[in-house]
């Protein structure tokens, strides 16, 4: 564990040793990267706690860093941490029922709308947001809460195959995607694109879909995407526990 080791005077080599040699809190169950088959509120609470601890320790290292190269290292670690945890947070909600007016904050309890699913995941991943206000925004405003306009990519009347190629071209990471009447996450990691969202379609629940089965993503004529985990100011804001004012 990190313990309470101070790194205030650490140089780059010592900082690298500190991060790599002291194990961040481990996830102590098998199959972490496998999708859950049903809502898992206990696992969700566990993940939130462990991610918060990781953020705290990475923030400590970031604030103690003495050069840009040291800070770059910490930001990369932070981005990797979010890419590890956020898909697992999403999957803890699988099978939770969808409802247009659903506002649940706990997997498997009550119902949740697509915007509330995105906003609660962002909040519980450690981004300080107004969960309710964020959830009620159009998808582009949800994206603009975290990313500037120049970091968004908008596709209209674009074929599905071309759109997926564009996502791959934009690189690995965790994306928010806004559609005609929907908002969701795209997880582009490990050579596979997953579409995770609270679906008002046939399942009427939170689902984790392949691109082949992502019917709402496939049929939408409007798609706007932004990569959360590659935008450095967002990662730094997460480390520094900044408040993200809802764009409206």
Q: Which descriptors apply to this entry?
A:
248 residues, alpha+beta, 6-stranded antiparallel β-sheet, 9 helices, disordered N terminus
Tell me about the largest β-sheet.
6 strands, antiparallel
Morphology call: globular
**Strand proportion:** 5-15%
User: Pairing-aware structural class of the strands and helices?
Assistant: alpha+beta
Amount of helix: 40-55%
Averaging pLDDT over every residue, what do you get?
A: 90
- Radius of gyration, whole Å: 18 Å
Q: Compute the number of strand runs.
A: 6
| Distance from first to last alpha carbon | 41 Å
* Tally of separate helices: 9
Compressed to H and E, one letter per element, the order equals HHHHHHEHEEEEHEH
What does this structure look like?
The chain is of the alpha+beta class and 248 residues long. The longest helix has 24 residues, at 41-64. The protein has one domain. A 6-stranded antiparallel beta sheet has the order 1-6-2-3-4-5, sandwiched between helices. The chain has 9 helices and 6 strands; from the N terminus they run H-H-H-H-H-H-E-H-E-E-E-E-H-E-H. Residues 1-10 and 24-35 have low confidence and may be disordered.
């Amino acid at each position: 564990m990190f313990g309470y080791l101070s790194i205030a005077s650490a140089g780059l080599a010592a900082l690298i040793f500190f991060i790599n040699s002291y194990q961040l809190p481990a996830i102590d169950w098998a199959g972490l990267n496998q999708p859950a088959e049903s809502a898992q509120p206990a696992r969700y609470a566990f993940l939130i706690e462990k991610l918060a601890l990781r953020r705290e320790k990475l923030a400590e290292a970031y604030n103690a860093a003495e050069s840009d190269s040291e800070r770059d290292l910490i930001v990369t670690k932070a981005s990797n941490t979010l890419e590890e945890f956020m898909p697992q947070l999403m999957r803890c909600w699988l099978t939770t029922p969808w409802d247009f007016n659903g506002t649940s904050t706990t997997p498997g309890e009550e119902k949740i709308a697509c915007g509330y699913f995105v906003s609660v995941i962002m909040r519980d991943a450690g981004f300080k947001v107004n969960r309710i206000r964020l959830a009620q925004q159009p998808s582009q405003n949800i994206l603009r809460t975290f990313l500037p306009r120049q970091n968004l990519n908008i596709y209209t009347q674009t074929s599905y195959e071309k759109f997926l190629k564009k996502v791959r071209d934009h690189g690995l990471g965790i994306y928010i995607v806004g559609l005609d009447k929907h908002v969701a996450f795209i997880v582009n990691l490990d050579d596979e694109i997953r579409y995770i969202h609270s679906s008002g379609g046939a399942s009427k629940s939170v689902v984790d879909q392949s691109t082949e089965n992502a019917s709402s993503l496939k049929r939408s004529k409007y798609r706007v995407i932004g990569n959360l985990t590659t935008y450095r100011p967002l990662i730094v804001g997460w480390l520094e526990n900044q408040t993200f004012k809802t764009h409206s």
